[in-house]
User: What shape does this take?
Amino acid sequence: MTATSGEAQAHGRARDFVFISYAREDREFLQPLLLEPLDAAGIQYWFDEHLEWDDNWWQEVRSRVHQAHAVIVLMTPRAAKSDWVTREVLVAQEKDKAIFPVLLEGKPLGQLTAHQYLDLRDGQRPNASWLDAVRHRLRSARRRRVIRTYLPALLISVIPAIAGSVVLIQLILPLFQNEQVEIPSLNGDYNLAVAQFSESLHGDLPDYVAGEVNSFVPGVVAGVKEALQQSSQDASDDIRLLRIEVEGLPVSVDGASADNQLTAGSIADQSNADALLYGSITTDGAAVVVAPRLWLSPRALPRAEELSGSHTLLSPRYYASRPDSVIRLRRLVADMASDLAALTVLIRLYDSGEFSNALNTIQDVRANGFEQEGLLYVFEGNLAGKLNRFDEAKLAYERALSFPAYTGRASLGLAQVAYSAALDEDVGCSADVDVEGLGEVIRTYAQLQDEADAPGANIRVKAIFGEARARVCLDASGRRSDDGRGRHLLQTVIDEYRHSVGESEDDDLRELAAEAEALMGDYDARRATNSTELLPALNHLDRAAKLTLFPDRKLGFTIAQATFLARAGELDRACEKIKQAQVLMAPEATMPPVDKLNCS
Assistant: This one.
């Protein structure tokens, strides 16, 4: 496409731009009424000029809406009839984009009646205050990405990949106490961050050992990058690797101290990292103890309830006086890099649904000496469960129980396996469920609620959700009445999430709350005897769709809303939900039929 002076450059290289949504029949109004004023104001914009109309057209347009910091919508009677304008506005609303409606003819669009709009029906051009508002939005977005100017310059080095795209971003952050830390957000297919280890150095180390301690994190980063490049067979791989140096500010799991420590979870959240390596290095002058830890984000492992959060890796001790101390420290760097690269491959296979390949890869990773076997066994159990290989999953989780740090996680996995095995293979929570098996699952989850928690694992809340889900399933089967206990526990999960929002929002709890809302909606719908009683169930599903961060779950919740609305006789609203679902669907997917609904 050809870029004008104000048009955002191809491939999203100009990051601070507004997306322009309009009906093609209104193209003639763009240049004089909008583009010229935006150019004069120095505001970058993007619209679909010169974009080829082919199978990839909608994917490109949707991608641009995601990248934009604001959306300008030209409202006319033609735009009101345009499915594409409707879709673009829906995507903008889903992504919480700032929307600037501009009324050229007729009335405001129904989707935007709650927004203030710029009225240009008299043929005038945008006024200075409106342009300032748009410009301010872009400046605000830019400020959110840039470290405060009184901090030393941000160093970003991008190193070309040999195979695929493994991009290293290095961030050096000398921080002042109580200042807000801003970390760049990664946008690769897979994002891995390595933070500077907190140091507690007492006594003098030999120079040759001190040098190895200082180069520990850079060595791990270089090793991970090299290992990923060697293992990447797909030229489309896009892996972002972030090295974070934090001077004078240790990375802490609990983040409870008064000196504004960063938490592993907050770093992973700010950088959009799927995995984060951090930890500590301590020495008394005679020995060096390296204590690495690993944070796995729930975003990278959807439906892997026992894997997210903080994992304690091995803590080796190296005596500085030993002749081989340098060699052993270097070997630790190489092993750590190898383990992180292997974990990256595993999580990417998991994320793409290649569970069988991931399970096979675990055997190779174990054979290569992966340090934390407990983590591998939990991963193995989860993958085997996804493949309905329940005996294999149970064996892996039982092996994980022998590692004290993984007792709670492995017990969660065992309960999940037992729950899956108790369901009807075809229908799920039908009259053919194993009632005794579900009863045992309920008892197991109840016991787990008193289990010692691992940082970020949320074992207690997940156990509450697991018990609630099993109780609701029993109730749905018709084999045993729950008397509202399951619904009460689901509300407890939602309340736990709401409490966490007041501190620092937890994506793991957010997803549990979304599923709890959906189950409450299903629970209430089964008891509804008329259309009015269906509305509370619909509200639960609406909250579930707004909470979840995963498009496939949002799609499922939206279709369920359409189903409930159709049952309530709200056919127009049901068709609106179907239209929203179509926006969320993959291009090759087919919308499942909804009973009593014809939106053609």
In short: Residues 325-351 form the longest helix (27 residues). The longest strand covers residues 165-174. The CA atoms of residues 190 and 348 lie 7 Å apart. The radius of gyration is 27 Å.
